[in-house]
Amino acid sequence: MSASRPSLLRRHLAFRRLWLSWCVSNVADSMLFLVLAVWVKDLTGSNGAAAMTFVCFGAPALIAPVLGDMVDRVSRRRLLVVVKLAIVPVLLGLLVVPDAVLLVAVYAVTVAYGAVGYLTAAAQGGLVRDLLDDDDLAAGNGLLSTVDQALRLVAPLLGTGLYALAGPGPVVVLTASCFGVAALILAGLRMTETPPTPADERGGYGAEIVAGAAHLRRTPLLGITLVAVTVGFAATGLLNAVSFAVLEHGLGVPAAMIGLVVSVQGIGAVLAGITVARAIGTWQESAVVRVGLLLLAAGTLPLMTPWLPVALVGLVAIGFGGTWSVVALMTMRQRLTPPTLQGRVGTATNVAITVPQTAVTLVGAALVGLVDHRLLLLVTAVGVALAAMLTWRRTSSTVTGFTAQPQQQEAVS
Q1: By residue range, what is the domain housing residue 389?
Q2: Is this prediction's pTM over 0.85?
Q3: How many whole angstroms separate alpha carbon 284 and alpha carbon 278?
Q4: Which of 97, 282, 332, 338 has an alpha carbon within 20 to 30 A of 324's alpha carbon?
């Protein structure tokens, strides 16, 4: 049975340090992501130029397999420390570049920041696998997800508020400081990592790059669960595209209410992070993914009504169901993946989910002015529900997982 959250943090001093680093890093992540777009908007006055920051942030997906391979070739703890320290001077450089190249510099930093995101997500997933037993994985991932979602409720407001009051300088300094502190916390992490595969046992570089995708293909339970989440989240790309139409035309409220939408959805996500470990311990990962997707589909339907309170209930269900699905998939991936492949399988999983969702969002953006938003919401709900059905198969989610190297756990008496 999964350990309770307080028990997990008390018993695993090393995981507690990793969790603390995640908390500090997420303060920076949640502030910086939105502020960069706002900064570009102020520099150019163009909504299109501001939107390009999100394109720059997603661009490293094109080299994600290379980044995943890098994670599996080195000490993941050291990589996290180096990457978090390296991004500090990159961010601070924005304060000294000439105005003539500032826009290009912001775009370049955003690309670097996106690449750091892929590296840290893959490396941290591997460290969690090495630190925690199978029974504790769900609780650990739930804790990390709870922190992530909780900070998304407040950190963007803190970042944009600080930007409005004092400009970009203090925001850049604060986020850089957070990354530096997170690196120092990780530098003190003491654990036994799974060593990388020796050079003489690796295949050709091309085979190594695609090894994560190959593992997903030859692990049926993990592969079909990933397909289900990919299809479900691709369908939510339409939901992203119709967000403002739902507010203005469906609910009759101003577009500025998008902040309320994000916050309410975040409340559902936080509740999901708190409860997901118990759910996985009771039902297993594939069932939790299925229930999460069904909740996500059900939560989309109230957005078709003109009643704001009903829509808010739906948003809570969307945040809850989406987080349950992601955390359960992450836990399954860690459990059914060899320690030496964690980085490559992690990046392959992220790319498989985010690229189709982004593509469908672009399609939805083209359709939203031509098709009633309620029809697109219905298509979303049906698509996510059908995706949930993909997990209804006989393969048991109790397949034996891969065990990491024996660890020297740090304990607190």
Answers
A1: 208-395
A2: no
A3: 10
A4: 338
